[in-house]
Amino acid sequence: MKKILYLLTALACFLLTNIPTLHAQEEEESFRLMVFGDSLSAGYRLQPQEAFYSRLEDALNAKGYDNVKVINASISGNTTAQGLARVDKAIEQKPHAVLLELGINDVLQGLSLQKAEENLEQIIQAFQKNDIPVMLIGMQAPPMSSVDVRNQFTQMYKDLAKKYKLVFYPFFMDGVFIERFGVMDMKYLQDDAAHPTAQGVQVMTQKIMPTVERFLTSLED
Fold first, then answer.
1. Which of 100, 51, 95 lies closest to 80, judged by CA?
2. In tens digits, what is the pLDDT along the chain, a chain of 221 residues?
């Protein structure tokens, strides 16, 4: 009887001692994909499970990427300057790869697009210097912007993607932000006509998934 109690005690000690190690191994084995953006990816006015980062993880898991953990590093209202100010903290989380989605708030606040491009470039450089691959997600300036601003904003993303040889998704809200005959289609938009509903996030996730898969596949080469 004493021998059995001794064996049970030893087994319990072994399990208690090794639980943290086992959890650490599981965490290390996960591929940490960070979403570094603003309200569009943070899930503004949505439940956490409805936000883009959650939907993306679900979609990836459903496609067999069951070891991918999507990290939310998006903050509503962030400009590119605010993103740049916190990029070092993001790097401290040790992501394996990053989806970069910033810029629309610079346009909405009337900030310099040249400066926005410089900020994005420095964010990209910061991640790449730490051997963290970046996929760039673009946006489009709102319809009320001038033609020059809209063209410059779109070109900004294209130029950065080309310069840094990034996998690039041109328009994050493709299929959600739809203008018909000068009137905004509100089917997948919240009442502010700027942020996606939960259903809108599902559309965005479905549309971006092939590009995210291409990005992840490129990391295996």
1. 100
2. 444 444 434 444 443 444 333 233 344 579 999 999 999 999 999 999 999 999 999 999 999 999 999 999 999 999 999 999 999 999 999 999 999 999 999 999 999 999 999 999 999 999 999 999 999 999 999 988 999 999 999 999 999 999 999 999 999 999 999 877 667 789 999 999 999 999 999 999 999 999 999 999 999 87
Strands 97-101 and 31-37, how do they pair? parallel
What's the CA gap between 75 and 130, in Å, rounded? Answer: 22
Number of domains within the chain: 1
Name every residue whose Cβ is closer than 8 Å to that of residue 65 and which is 6 or more positions away in sequence. Answer: 31, 216
Residues carrying an active site annotation: 39, 192, 195
Within the chain, where are the H helices? 2-29, 39-42, 52-62, 80-85, 87-92, 104-108, 113-129, 147-163, 198-218
Smallest Cα–Cα separation from 50: which of 209, 198, 191?
198
Query: Domain span at residue 186?
Result: 28-218
Tokens of 54: 């959650």
Domain annotation covers residue 18: no
How far is residue 27's CA from residue 175's CA, in Å, rounded to a whole number? 35
